[in-house]
Every structure is written in structure tokens, then in C-alpha cells.
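Feature request, filed as a ticket because there's no other form

It would be nice if the structure record came with a short human-readable summary line next to the C-alpha cells. Right now we just get the raw output. Example of a typical job, pasted below so the devs can see what we mean:
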Amino acid sequence: MFLAPEGDEAEIADAAAAFLSDALPIERLHAPDCADMDASLRALLGEMGWFALALPEARGGSGLTAVEHALFFREVGRQCGPIDILAQALAANLCSSAERREALVAGAKGVAMLVADGDCWRLLGSHEAELGLLVTPEDASLYSLADAACEDRAALDPANSLRVVSALPDPLESREGEQLWQLGQLGAAAMLVGIGEAALDLIVDYAKVRETFGRPIGAYQAVRHACADMAIRTEAARAQLWYASTALKESRGDASAHIDAAKHLANEAAMGSADANIQLHGGIGVTDEHDAHLLLKHALLLTRIFGSKRGLLSRLLHARLED
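Raw output as currently delivered:
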């Protein structure tokens, strides 16, 4: 990739967009029991090889890179795809057990995302998931959820179920290092960029048809300037995402700093654009029937995993970049 997707990379992005708009449309979130990734969707994603994009061919993957990983999850974000899709892909990259890895790549076993919360853990993902993945900047571990005592909690984001786990067993597998954290950051940042793009598309389309005083609202500077701000934020986040994923692909020594920057800019772009999208839509922007609130709720969750504002800026403050 040279600053933007090209060639085979663009084809993968287009294929992911077409597949996900059919298999995982955002409209699904207006129906009851719409959260998470069910077994049939997981099997379909596995059949298409989407969980194994960044997994080496020698380990049963596609042998592609962080670039293709980011391109796919950008499209997942546009549809407010559940976080257990990212958990499944990361777990497939973690596994050293060939049998378990094959089951994860094929979607035969499900994985939910564990997030530390004080003395307990929040669990994001399907109740059918047999495994839980915990990723930190220092290491990653995979746990069995078979005997875990999980307490259901109300979830703000309708795309994801939320449970709380008070105790975890010994991990089935662990790996030290930041590789999985970096892939998780890129995946979450890419999903946030997708949210920002979707929010911008929504308001631009609406501004062309909604009229006040006999003119489309897009003719007014107050709307045009807000849309321009959304476009600039999204473009900055998207450009940094491409640079960061390429830096990881090429094993640059400063890849971590670029990935942190990508996640921070994606956090800001998704939240700013999702909020502005609601405001510019006016009254219908706050109705349950509209997609606008879905983008904001999904962004609120994604900005709090794999790096939030304070932690990212603290790391960037001390980062060293290569020439």
C-alpha cells in the first residue's frame, strides 16, 4: 500500500464491503436479539477466511498482513459489527494449538472479548462463546468460559452483549509481547474509521434532500462547515490508519507509536462525527428508528478498548519516531 489501498488491497476492501453489507447490515440492530455474532454468521465468516487474514499460511491463514486486517475491520465498523469478530481474529493469531486454531479460523468455536475492570472483567460477546480473550499491551491470554460465573448486564451498544466475570481459570494459552495488542488496536481503530465514514455518508445524503425555507440544508454554511469538519477528522484518521498498518507490515521500530496515533485519531473522528451526525439530523437523529444513535453507541464502546485518550496520549508523549 502506498498511502492508500491499491490493487489487491482495494479488491479485498470492496469484497469485504459487499459481503458485510449483505451478511451483517446495520439495519439488523433495529430488531430484537440482534447483538453479537451467532453461530451461523461465525461459520460464514470462517468459511470466507475473514478471521485469518493476518495469519501466516504455514499456520492455516491467508498469509496477508496488518493492512488487509485493517481494511476488513474498517468495513466491519461501517456496519457496527460486533466486537467478537475482532476477538475471534485475534484469538486465531494467538493460538499455538493447531486443532484449536483451526476451529477458530473456521468459526467452529466462538470467542468473546475480556476487558479488565477493577477486580473483575467485562465480557463482550455472544453467550455461546466457549472462549474468552484478554489482551493487554504486555501479553494476551485465552481462557475457557465453560465454568465461568457470568452476570448479565444491560449494554449501551445493541451490537454487543455485556456480562461481568468475577474470576477466571488458568489460561489455556498465553503469549508475551505486544503483537496481539497492536493487531487489536488496528482492528478497533479501523472500525472507528468506518463509523466516522458511515456518519459522514449519512449526513451528506440527508443534507441533499432535507429542505428548510425552500432550500436543501446542505446549502447553508452552518451545515456545510460541520460536514467539512467531519470529513477532515475522518480523512486524518484514515490516513494515519493506513500509515500505521503499513508500519506494522514493514516491522518499523516506531510502529507502536503510529498505531497509538491511529487509535487516538480514530477515537476522536468517530465520536466527533457520530455526535455531529445526530445534531445535524435534528429531531429524527435522536429517534430509535434512525441509524445515527447506533453509530454513536458503537463508537462509545470502541473508544474504550485497545486504548482510550489518556493512555494513548501518555504513550505518545514519550514516543520516539524513526526518520
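Something like this underneath would help us a lot:
The chain has a mean pLDDT of 93.
The two ends are 19 Å apart (CA to CA).
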